[in-house]
Amino acid sequence: MRKVEFANGEFYHIYNRGVDKRKIFESHADYERFFLSIALLNDEKEGWLEVWRNLPKKEKIINDFRRLNLRKPLVEILAYCFNPNHYHFIIRQLEKKGIEKFMHRLGTAYTMFFNKKNKRSGSLFQGSFKAIYIDTNEYLLYLSAYVNKNNFIHGYNNANWRYSSLVEYKKENKVNICNPYPVLGQFIDIDEYLKFVDKNSLYLKDKKEEQRYLLE
Q1: Which of 1, 14, 81, 190 has an alpha carbon 20 to 30 Å from 21's alpha carbon atom?
Q2: What's the number of domains the chain is made of?
């Protein structure tokens, strides 16, 4: 039984990784499919994936999420980062059981896609997704830095990592699946926020390296 009970209007850190720490994203196309699934499945109404599958090929433009016109989202995504073997979200629940419905749909749909593409079977993720309640605003801001620069913290040191919501915060991406304003609205401008992110992500990366050496 899940220890965290999800409540509407509250924020949660949601994360999971591949079973046996395996890669869950092996190509840019895999990331694109994950983005597409997020856009299509975050809706009270089911069946958007099937609608997409039946569109003429020329209309299947994965990056053009605006045309999907989602009417009633289950959750609001504030931040995300997708790394080769794990993912992170900061999510606010909008509808009752919204997080559970959305994450179940996302995990199931992406696993079916990945398994079919790679001719494999079985679980892709390490059990059910993990969830932590974000109980203070300070924790929310700190966690936003952790999620937005998670690729850097884990050694995927690419300043232009396209699979993090930081590109949406900086308005550098055509794909928009998150709402950065609950976080960004607490800073003077994006430059102040980026300084906050850089400072905290560097601290977290150094702390992670220290723990690794202590374990060795």
Answers
A1: 1
A2: 1
Is 90 contained in some domain? yes
Q: Could you tell me if 182 and 79 are in contact, meaning their C-beta atoms sit under 8 angstroms apart?
A: no
Work out the mean pLDDT of the chain and round it to a whole number.
85
**What is the residue range of 173's domain?**
11-136+156-180
Structure-block tokens of residue 181 = 């304003």
- Greater pLDDT, 153 or 208: 153
Percent of the chain with pLDDT over 90: 62
Give the CATH number for residue 37. 3.30.70.1290
For residue 112, pLDDT beyond 90: yes
What's the CA gap between 7 and 134, in Å, rounded? 11
pLDDT at 172: 79
Per the domain annotation, does 143 fall within a domain? Answer: no
28-41 and 98-118 helices cross at what angle (nearest 10)?
150
Asked whether the predicted pLDDT for residue 196 surpasses 90, the reply is yes
Strand partners, 79: 90
Q: Is 20 part of a structural domain of the chain? A: yes
pLDDT higher than threshold 50 for residue 127: yes
Q: Are 157 and 45 in contact (CB under 8 A)?
A: no
In a domain, 103, yes or no: yes
